[in-house]
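Tokens in:
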């Protein structure tokens, strides 16, 4: 039996990669939109997605990513 012990950061990065993979146009266009978020996710000290969203909204004034869903 396979166990899924991914943390929120791994799940978010997987979601970003899926969005890039499934984008119907140039991958470069969509990738540029997610470079900053990828860096923030990797460097975040938040313990869950909700804390990360609050951190984005507070520290980066990034209301769009703070409200986005997986």
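Residues out:
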């Amino acid at each position: 039996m396979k166990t899924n012990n991914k943390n929120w950061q791994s799940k978010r990065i997987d979601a970003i990669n899926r969005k890039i993979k499934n984008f119907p146009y140039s991958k470069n266009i969509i990738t540029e939109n997610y470079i900053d978020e990828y860096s923030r996710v990797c460097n975040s000290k938040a313990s869950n997605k909700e804390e990360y969203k609050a951190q984005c909204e507070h520290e980066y004034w990034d209301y769009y990513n703070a409200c986005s869903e997986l």
